[in-house]
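User:
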Amino acid sequence: MKIVIIGSGLAGLSAGYKLCKSNEIVIFEKDEEIGGMAASYCQDYKGKKYFIEKYYHHIFRSDSELLDLIRELGLESQMMWLKGKNAYFVDGKNYPMNTPAEILRFKPLSFTDLVKLGLLVLRIKLINDTTSYDRIKAKDWILDTAGQSVYENFFAPLMKSKFGENAENVSAAWLIGRVKIRSDRGSEGEKLGYLRGGFNSLIEALGREITAQGGRILQNKAITEIVIKDNTVQGVVTDGDFMPCDAVISTVEPRVLDALTKGKLGALHTTLQSIRYQGTACALIGLDKGLMKDGNYWLNIKADVPFGAVIEHTNFMPFEDYGEHLVYVTSYFQDENDALWLKKEEEVLDSYLKGLEKMFPDFSRTNIHWAKLFRRMDTAPVYEQGYLEKVLPFAPGPSGLYLAGMFSSTNYPERSMNGSVKAGFEAAKFFMKKDDKCEVCWLD
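Assistant: Predicted structure:
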């Protein structure tokens, strides 16, 4: 079969990787580089060349499909499991949040509130099915479960930082999914995985495998239409040219999919238009001095600054791998009229640097080697109350059209790299012919 895949993020590349041995695969990527949200920036500092992700990433021990893929591609020797120190910046002070003992010293909460917080986390660990929580607002559930103080002094700033004006509409299902993925902690805190050399190694390995099997990855090539006739996919249009194909796997965001299909998805058209998602403005800064002297990797923030988190990559990965200190400063925005999307790069960077100067008295702009701002409008869905009903189906209707990616069920109730890999794998399974290990042949 000739299968067109729209988008070269982890979902698209994972599907292409599984399908390329027995199908003709063509992957279209509108950007210059492949990888989507996992794409990297190549830096050459004083003759030391390295890759660093445009948007920070790490691996959780529960990411089984992603870890299997890494092993299958022969990258297991690059895997590292390291302690990522976390803290919460509140009222001008850093509070470590790695171990139970440290959390008990979180002054903004009373001892009683800390007990309530601990019981809430324990309760979340025991929840296996989040379906019944999708229609409940996270705010209401926290208030009912742990009380006003825990919500206002712990959760509300984090949710406001991530979802802005939509924070109070986010579902309890998302909160449960988020806490579960981040609560796998031992006595020394949380350990996170990372590929030495960066996730660029994974993206390049997938690309090599696909092209080695005859697949094509076309960069700087945007699809402008998925041609559907008589409720069947005929092919795609790019640069005004029509390319026929037997099937299309789309990994693009809902409104783009709606535009590409020209409103031919029937009842799904309304859903595609109603899904809200948010963007990210993520600054990546190279420094000659470390920013967080206490060794923190991840700093959540409750302060009057234009960002919600600071992530110091070289407090996690060895400084020697890069030859300079690397820091992410990030904020989310909710629509295309937000200043973080409309302002020039230098204006956003300047506002971020002013925030760092406010938080870190020892920080000086003279320490900066370089700074880049990366922005995307489709960073994640807003997992608002009732979002489960909007999760995109694998087969949306027309014969030959299939959906995989960030808006798939594998990325509910919280998105992850593993969720996107799993979405790609599940799409590929639909096409795979029967072999000794497969009881179902979808094409028979």
